[in-house]
Amino acid sequence: MTTNNNSIEAALAGMTHEQRREAIDRIDHANAVAEHNEREAAIKAQVEAQTETSLKGNQWLQLQQSGQLRSGQALTEGQAKIAAAAAAQPMNGNAPQALVDQLPVTIGGINFSPIDARRMMERGEVSRVDYAAAVNAEVARYGYSFS
Asked: Per residue in 66-86, pLDDT tens?
């Protein structure tokens, strides 16, 4: 080791002040690059670990991997909320208004948003009987009825 230090000292002694400064700058730069690469590797490892944790908690991905979800099908946040609300309610009685307000309905073969269907019924464009039948058809999938 002392032989190596002696050769470095001899090399530095044979350099001009400017050459020594450039050599020191190159060494400092190499150290900075090494530190940067270490930090970058640590960040990448952290991101990979967090991504793995996130993927484990991803409901859509789990359903797709288990074969319960076709690849072109999406589970929206609204669909997940509807399913959770329906699962939390007892499977009898009248449908909660929150569920009725989220489910699209089909009247006369045409799909309507829940708000549009209710407004059409209120304006008399759709009969109350047709509206109630359409809502009943939707909430029945969750074990409820609508009156």
From this structure: 666 555 555 566 667 766 665
